Queue: 3 jobs
Job 1
Amino acid sequence: MPDTPAALICAARGVPFNGANPAAWNLGIASTALGDWTTARHAWVAYGLDKFRAEAGPIDVDCGMAPVRLNPDQPSLPHQVLFSAGNTEVVWCWRRSPAHAVIASVPLPDSGHRCRDVVLHDGEPKGTRQLDGQDVSVFDELGRLEESGLPTWQAQVVGATANDFQELSDLLEQRGLGLDDWSGIRLMCSECSHGAQQDGHDHIPAASDDGKRLGLAGRESDLDEVIAPWLSGRHGIDVLNLDLLW
Ligand SMILES: [Zn+2]
């Protein structure tokens, strides 16, 4: 796939499309990159996605959750210039159209991305991850459309059960804040990440005796307003450190 919106538009417009034509998808990506929602709607309808026909204005449709590979390390096409703001990381996102998504996870700072950044992504599956027992496709990031500016924090929490963490996660999400269990992050090699599981590569997260390492996203006062009452109703839980990372 060409690497700039302009190149994408030229590639797409050089080919007449109707029905499920890859050029229609490329045009959808290119016009989403430019915020040209009218053209994006035409493109998705031309591809056969009729649900984008009805409304006008920016596309913001619940298209489910998908993993997106931030800063992808392998190009889709020769000569493609990859988008990179840091280290490669696969994060969960809320898809809001076929080509753009909001980051739901709390990315590691090394990725150069934050929770609730809006990213443009490719439509070609590049590996899979599990969601509720189902395989879902991973899509490569093509660029960042919006930076959320939501600060990223790290906390060490001891004495909390899985239920405690789930309740905290739900409370934070209701407030537009983020939580991720960074203890559970699997640092995979590129081959395994793209779906070609290598022999003897388990990539099991490192075990830890000192509780869980959480990634949190939000302003400090907003996080406090959720975490303080969550802590006060529970005995034996300690938040050992809450460090602003960036
Ligand atoms: Zn591996």
Note: The pocket of zinc ion is lined by residues 188-189, 191-192, 198, 201, 203 (CB under 6 Å).
Job 2
Amino acid sequence: MAGLCLRDAVHRLGSAAAPFVYASFVGSLDGRIALRDPQAGTSHLPVEITSGNDFRLFLELQAQADCLITHGGYLRDLAAGRLDDVLQIGTQDAGRDLGRWRQENGLAPQPAVVIASASLDFPIPDSLARASQRVLIATGRQAPPDRVEALRARGYPVVVAGDGASVEGAPLVRELGALGFRSLYLLAGPRMLSTMLRDGVLSRLYLTVAHRLLGGESFHTMTEGPGLGDAGRLRLSSLHYDSAAPDGAGQWFARFEPQRPA
Ligand SMILES: NC(=O)c1ccc[n+]([C@@H]2O[C@H](COP(=O)([O-])OP(=O)(O)OC[C@H]3O[C@@H](n4cnc5c(N)ncnc54)[C@H](OP(=O)(O)O)[C@@H]3O)[C@@H](O)[C@H]2O)c1
């Protein structure tokens, strides 16, 4: 499967006026993307639905981004040691070649990182400064003003995208396009995917479906908030089948494009 997502060349599909916005998820046949532990207040990606092939494709997608859009929740999980740091290209064994791939394809050594947050209560990992990555913060107009000022005082540009506390998809994409970013990868979760779909600015969704049912009473799925209506209509544009992983169960690698109204 290595090379499957690099061949899509998503880094060439966007423009400053219309950045290419893409996301990827891995889930089970019953639609779980993470299982929750309500008592501990934590969630985790079950190993039963992960595979080496899926991780490689994730790294290939990330390597094609001018800009990664992550969020405050991920940085809190990172600081607590619950998740690995995947904010740099070429640092994982499965993707050592991807730093050179970026260089050969005219991309900056590392993508910029946008941190979306309503609370603005997150630590900024040292890895971003070590890798000389450009860091921007995105929030809504109702965000705590003292935290906005504190972040600006530390030298982080704060993009206000949305009239509430949360970041909205369309103004964020417009602002990032104006800053010259053409390929925006959502290294985020259900809230960010939902706002991008609702605002009609998602360009593509990559979805790995592991062929097993997870069950469980408390879980996350790919979307959240009010019903998506027609914004949730997608068209399959590519499908690959891997019969071996994870753990012999099999998995589909699917690629979908949102269906815009005629
Ligand atoms: N299987 C997969 O492919 C996959 C993919 C993604 C996530 N997951 C997992 O699914 C679970 C839920 O995902 P998640 O943590 O990403 O949940 P989420 O509810 O989408 O996002 C959580 C945090 O991100 C910030 N955020 C997200 N969207 C925002 C927006 N539009 N505006 C402002 N802030 C925003 C908020 O931070 P503040 O509190 O700082 O305001 C929020 O608390 C996690 O366990 C995650 O690891 C799995």
Note: Residues 25-27, 33-34, 43, 45, 71-73, 116-119, 121-122, 166-167, 188-192, 195, 220 surround NAP (CB under 6 Å).
Job 3
Amino acid sequence: MFTVHLSDSVTLFHGDALRILTTLPDAGVDAVLTDPPYSSGGTCMGARQADPSQKYQQSGTKRQYPPMLGDAKDQHSWIMWCTLWLSECWRIARDGAPLMVFTDWRQLPALTDAVQAAGWSWRGIVAWDKRSSRPQLGRFRQQCEYIIFASKGRFAAPTRACLPGVYAYPVIAAQKIHLTSKPVALIEDLLAVTAPQASVLDPFMGAASVGEACIRTGRGYVGVELSREYFEISRARLETLHSERR
Ligand SMILES: C[S@@+](CC[C@H](N)C(=O)[O-])C[C@H]1O[C@@H](n2cnc3c(N)ncnc32)[C@H](O)[C@@H]1O
């Protein structure tokens, strides 16, 4: 476990999110935007514990990514674990702060329960239309992932704009750095519910798509990642971005 300060407003932690969150002060961040391990992918334990590269990549994809950690919990322990880290995020967030958490269709009901159990006021979901997905014979494609939107008490909206409820961004394989990379442009759109200089907490940094969007839009960023490989990928990505913008 160690910390890297890239600037006054960007701090990265290597280590377990739950342990690190307990060390952060009360009411220290303006927003939480994160993409935790989904522990999804099937109806039985075997499917859930499969290698994430099989669960979250279309068959036939050859590209290899560093292993993604923490993705094989059963449903009960996953909900309990989410409630624990979401409770810490609630404590660390300022009153009125927005929370945005990525999830898929399988875990949406479980995660909205955990969000509320942790004290957040659930305010809706945003759909991310990925524009492509595995074909499903005789039934609907699972073409969307979701962002659960909640707030710490009464939501302090920083904008009077009416924002969409669906964002369409394809996953561009050549731009992927992490097995489950999210498009930076999507994250930038989601940041519309945070103030222009907000500090954003992301306990599951991955390869730092949220971090890149925060730096590009002038926001602060606090990221945590357990995998040493992904931590170093994130550190290099954000250092490069910082030096380009100086
Ligand atoms: C879904 S990925 C995030 C991907 C990220 N949004 C991106 O676009 O690059 C979740 C990340 O959480 C990390 N992780 C898993 N368990 C963790 C824990 N207990 N503490 C911190 N990070 C953890 C995984 O290694 C993985 O990189």
Note: The chain has a mean pLDDT of 92.
